[in-house]
Specification:
This protein is mainly α. It has 11 helices and no strands.
């Protein structure tokens, strides 16, 4: 039944599907400045894309339709989370592909090796989980129109600000090697750091799902 909910959500957001073709261009533009942020930014772009079902369901009152079907509310939540996780995988694949060729266009080129990629992927997964926790429970509780400011705009703006601050700080004299030094440290302790981030991200996702199920089960339509 979860697979059917995923298909329903995907078909419902047909209007937005063409926009997914623009995501690689946004990622390339961001990666033009620093190739290291390509994968995290790609993941975040796909996460933002995965909230479109909330907008569609509210505009078309699809919750009323879904709840007339022989399906439990936790199944609706699970379908939305699985679709979002699929978007995560798409973001990782696209980000990795673009980063592999980023030396052709990026101003800040980094060659971090396999372990470095594992660290960046684990970090991207953790960012995805944290922002998912900020967004999905609020959207399930308040709906898209009421919840998008606190659940979507604030986390995205915060992420953009943090990326901007990071770029500024690491470009200051004496800080140019901070990023690569941190990645070198991480690559020397890959299993501990990357594995720890992956485990933490998974726990955060589970927490996000549990909260979403609880708040959605109490929501009135």
């Amino acid at each position: 039944m979860i697979s059917k909910m995923i298909v329903l959500d995907w078909r419902a957001m047909k209007y937005y599907q063409k926009r997914i073709l623009l995501l690689p261009f946004f990622v390339i533009i961001m990666g033009w400045y620093n190739s290291l942020i390509i994968i995290p930014f790609s993941v975040m772009m796909f996460l933002s894309f995965s909230v479109n079902p909330f907008a569609v369901e509210e505009k078309g009152a699809l919750n009323n339709l879904y709840l007339t079907l022989p399906v439990k509310r936790n199944t609706i939540v699970a379908g939305r989370y699985v679709l979002s996780f699929i978007m995560l995988l798409c973001g990782l694949v696209m980000g990795i592909a673009i980063m592999l060729v980023s030396h052709h266009f990026s101003l800040a080129k980094w060659f971090i090796g396999f372990k470095g990629y594992m660290f960046v992927i684990a970090l991207s997964y953790l960012l995805y989980a944290l922002f998912n926790l900020c967004m999905f429970p609020i959207l399930f509780r308040l709906g898209y129109q009421k919840g998008k400011f606190w659940g979507f705009y604030i986390p995205v703006i915060l992420f953009a600000v943090l990326v901007g601050v990071y770029n500024v700080v690491t470009s200051l004299p004496g800080n140019e090697g901070f990023t690569i030094a941190f990645i070198v440290f991480a690559t020397e302790n890959t299993q501990l750091i990357s594995g720890g981030m992956a485990v933490l991200a998974s726990l955060v996702l589970v927490l996000s799902y549990i909260i979403s199920v609880k708040v959605y089960s109490k929501r009135d339509f």
